[in-house]
Amino acid sequence: MDVLGIDFGGSGIKGAIVDTNTGELRTDRFRIETPQPATPAAVLQVINEIINHFSWHGKVGIGIPGVVKNGVVLTAANIHDDWIGYPINQAFSEQTACEVVGINDADAAGIAEVHFGAGDNEKGMVFLLTVGTGIGTVIFINKHLVPNLELGHLEFKSKTIETYTADSVRKDKNLSWPEWGKRFNKSLAYYERMFNPNLFIVGGGVSKKMDKFEEQITIATPVVPAQMQNEAGIIGAAVHLAHL
Ligand code: BGC
């Protein structure tokens, strides 16, 4: 089945038509700057522009940087507060004339990686992190998703894992890659102690820079970069919808 997959990120909202059987993109990605403020109404307008760009009439899966439960967005750590309690599936379906289904962005990226990317051959527990403005987390057990885990918000070192280790923290504090890498390794070590996964997959912008901090990663569990990089969110949001 073909589904329009969309990834709602801090700087861009990107979409492409996805073949959900193979995880391949059928079209180029189309990107629009994220409106500021990124209220539901402003994002809806962008979604409609993306739908029109592809002359799309089918289903639309959207990755959202917050918890999405029963079609409703429940949290908004790094997005506009108007998202809290927003019934995205119903509201966006009504206002786009397409069937729209939202999913947490890290869950979407994870679905793409465990089916078509870095976790493809892995059994047991896979723990994926998306490291960007925030930290998204997702766990799969034999490729089954445990949805909406918000482990980036666990308290850690008088902060949270997110406010200690996100890529935005590296930039704001002007940390060198090794300095940031040490922090990241401490966060991974904490997750390792708590969850004992078989594999960590690192997604988000830092996955392309792993050579700059891999020396600081000393935990016993293997840590690999995501393979689908900036397409994972689009692909996973589409694949999730196709298998509902
Ligand atoms: C949000 C998560 C999201 C992550 C990455 C966190 O701040 O709470 O829901 O997956 O950022 O965007």
Detailed description of the structure:
The mean pLDDT is 96. With 244 residues, this protein is of the alpha/beta class. The chain starts with a strand and ends with a helix. The protein has 2 domains: 2-107 and 231-242, 2-Layer Sandwich (Nucleotidyltransferase, domain 5); 122-226, ATPase, nucleotide binding domain (Nucleotidyltransferase, domain 5, 2-Layer Sandwich), CATH 3.30.420. α1 (40-53) packs across α2 and α3 crosses α7 (232-242). A hairpin with a 3-residue loop joins β1 (2-8) and β2 (12-19). 31% of the residues lie in helices and 27% in strands. It binds beta-D-glucopyranose.
Q: How do you describe this structure in short?
A:
By secondary structure, the chain is of the alpha/beta class.
CATH class of the largest domain: Alpha Beta
The helix/strand class is alpha/beta
In the CATH hierarchy, what is the architecture of the largest domain at level 2? 2-Layer Sandwich
Q: What string, H for helix and E for strand, traces the elements in order?
A: EEEEHEEEHEHEEEEEHHHEEH
Number of domains: 2
Sum up the structure in keywords.
244 residues, alpha/beta, Nucleotidyltransferase, domain 5, 2 domains, six-stranded mixed sheet, five-stranded mixed sheet, 7 helices, 31% helix, 27% strand, globular, binds beta-D-glucopyranose
